[in-house]
Design a protein that fits this description.
Elements (H helix, E strand, L loop, with lengths): L1 H17 L4 H8 L3 H9 L6 H20 L5 H6 L10 H5 L4 H13 L5
Helix pairs in contact: 1-3, 2-3, 4-7
Length: about 120
């Protein structure tokens, strides 16, 4: 069980850092408390099944982001207003309902060169 906790806490932290998010922003994105993120990252607790689904959705979104952008450009893109999103930042859109779906749609348009 300790190996699983270690793997998950590392995955949570790596996902958060790859998106360029603070623990506070990552908590907002996932709809949990900052304390929860801290406990997951320290290995003090495991995400519950619904949170695991959310983490899996954001791992998928990150994979797509990494196909479109250099990894070092992702945090900057995630926090800059985007005209295709009504001048909201991708992060703000991501925090809304089905935010990951909206971002994946935008990334698909970017990838295929479709004007947004």
């Amino acid at each position: 069980m300790a190996t699983k906790v270690a793997d998950i806490h590392q995955e949570v932290q790596e996902l958060r850092e790859a998106l360029g998010l603070s623990q506070e922003d990552f908590a907002r994105l996932l709809g949990v408390s900052v304390r929860t993120i801290s406990r997951w990252e320290s290995g003090a607790s495991l995400p519950h099944p619904l949170a695991m689904k959310e983490l899996a959705r954001w791992r998928k979104a990150l994979e797509h982001l990494q196909e479109v952008f250099k990894p070092t450009a992702i945090p900057q893109w995630f926090h800059q207003p985007n005209k295709a999103l009504g001048d909201k930042t991708p992060f703000d859109v991501a925090c809304g309902p089905d935010g990951d779906v909206e971002l994946l749609d935008l990334l698909g348009r970017i990838e295929w060169g479709i004007p947004s």
